[in-house]
């Protein structure tokens, strides 16, 4: 009889103890796959949020208690607009763009809206004191040494929808509006329409693509128009800074704090630090659970194999009397362990992926998809554990003396 036929016959004739071991292996792989899948997609969501947000440093009033990076300007506190000039003249390495903002409550046709004042890039370029600032006008192809690519790549900036991703718009008239996607749908407004604000009519310049942030529910107008209409004076709620990542994580924050001591400087890394820490903890715990469960599975497999050898002494003796070599007997047991590991790893991957897809949206608000590489990791590790746990029982079976086996019967 061929080796594989013997292995399958053994699996079918004694399924109960092997199912227990299979479940233990599958449980370990399930825990690993589920937690790792959620962690991976949670990290991708954070990276995507950072990319879509654009700005990665905020300058805020000192009294602000920041709860949500995406609504950092919705606090009602202000700082002088002259801080923007002060930062521009400081010529800090790493500052790619400055975006001062002022948010005020308004109404359009009795519908409450949030009007956000922004300063278009053309305003920076027309200020004599700011002309020649490195972060506004670098020679083409110049790299200040803080970024991985030149900061002069302004492709698409003339398109006002660049505000959604680059946090900047080239031109914005005193009576023009940019609408977020959600508020545009709510107002039923589109490009070219007129909307009344503070008793004046504004023309819709464009509608931003959906961003998944509070920008979707906002109206954007020229900063100075918002200041005039709201009688707030030359103030802003926040100054967004697009900074090179290397500098934002290094000395730039210290430099900004020294330059503007009466403000609070916050990085997006500080805001998402808790989520990143949770992701790291989840990742480490998944490997801990995986290791513990697989050790339990290995002990279970070893116990089952030892019991199997004791129960089948006469059968093993008969095989060896008929010419089966010790190597043949060893391969029979290890083959069974290999099937157990592959099946347990595969089942664990499927169960873990389904579990992650089910609880990912509720647990961390992310959609989870299958990660094929985890299938390979789960199957390979489960197989190694199963084979290692079966090696000593297999060697014990291979050393049985056929004569003694029959004598015991």
From TrEMBL:
Signal peptide range: none
Location in or out of the cell: Cell membrane
InterPro entries in the record: ABC3_permease_C, MacB_PCD, Macrolide_Exporter_MacB
One Gene Ontology CC term in the entry: plasma membrane
GO molecular function annotation: ATP binding; hydrolase activity; transmembrane transporter activity
Residue span(s) of domain ABC3 transporter permease C-terminal: 287-402
Membrane-spanning ranges: 285-307, 337-359, 371-392
Short name of one Pfam family: FtsX
Keywords, alphabetical: ATP-binding, Cell membrane, Hydrolase, Membrane, Nucleotide-binding, Transmembrane, Transmembrane helix
EC number(s) reported in the record: 3.6.3.-
UniProt enzyme class: hydrolase
Stretches assigned to the MacB-like periplasmic core domain: 21-238
Membrane topology (UniProt): Multi-pass membrane protein
Family per similarity comment: Belongs to the ABC-4 integral membrane protein family.
Protein name: Macrolide export ATP-binding/permease protein MacB
The organism's taxonomic lineage, starting at the top: Bacteria, Pseudomonadati, Planctomycetota, Planctomycetia, Planctomycetales
